[in-house]
Backbone:
């Protein structure tokens, strides 16, 4: 199955502190396992509860066999720190949309 997947990154809650001051500067990186393009949200500084409200589109070549990788990172002056990751099968996304619309994860 081929098409366009639209993903909205809304927010995160209770992220672990990554900086000395007990906060983080989080951003989200998303990509399809079989794709080459990475999409990245803006960095939200000094928070453990960031709000992004950003939408990204991915061209999907094989929805039945691809994965959406969603990673959260902490932005630092000299690099980035890993916070966490979520992996979604696109077949799950297709089923949820067919059963009642977009889902919040």
Residues:
């Amino acid at each position: 199955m081929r098409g366009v997947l639209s993903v909205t990154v809304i927010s995160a809650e209770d992220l672990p502190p990554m900086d000395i001051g007990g906060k983080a500067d989080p951003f989200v990186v998303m990509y399809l396992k079989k794709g080459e393009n990475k999409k990245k949200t803006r960095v939200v500084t000094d928070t453990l509860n960031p709000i992004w409200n950003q939408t990204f589109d991915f061209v999907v070549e094989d929805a039945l066999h691809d994965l959406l990788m969603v990673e959260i990172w902490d932005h630092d002056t000299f690099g980035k720190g890993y916070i966490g990751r979520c992996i979604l099968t696109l077949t799950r996304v297709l089923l949820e949309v067919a059963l009642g619309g977009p889902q919040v994860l």
